[in-house]
């Protein structure tokens, strides 16, 4: 079975790296679900793969429940009725997981409130305090 997954122009996965096996789907579905193996189990070993070191590091650093302690990605696809559709779904989900791991998020830079915003905040606080003070008992 030739399963090649292209991630980018320079990075792709060979068919021997992705292990796909058919299993019986879980849940309701009547007689068909009990006799047809339409669900798909996809296994991908990150450490044995030909991915660049940067990809491997980022994937292993992810805290995703689909990645085991040994560094194996396990994806179970059983959304569709046919095995072919579930296989495509599993491959697409693997691709999304790998691509989401390599996205570099912009680091947050701490900022300070401006002098004007501090002044406005203090003015509003004192105004609110005056309003509350006027609600007290009136002495004649």
From TrEMBL:
Start and end residues of each Prokaryotic-type class I peptide chain release factors domain: 24-40
Family annotation (Pfam families): RF-1 (PF00472)
A GO BP annotation: rescue of stalled ribosome
One of the record's GO cellular component terms: cytoplasm
Keyword line: Cytoplasm, Hydrolase, Translation regulation
Stretches the record annotates as Disordered: 105-140
A GO MF term: ribosome binding
Catalysed reaction, written as an equation: an N-acyl-L-alpha-aminoacyl-tRNA + H2O = an N-acyl-L-amino acid + a tRNA + H(+)
Subcellular location: Cytoplasm
Signal peptide: none
Enzyme class: hydrolase
Hydrolase listed as a keyword: yes
Major subcellular site: cytoplasm
Subunit structure, as described in the record: Associated with 70S ribosomes and polysomes.
Family as reported in the entry's similarity comment: Belongs to the prokaryotic/mitochondrial release factor family.
Protein name: Peptidyl-tRNA hydrolase ArfB
Source organism of the structure: Oleiphilus messinensis
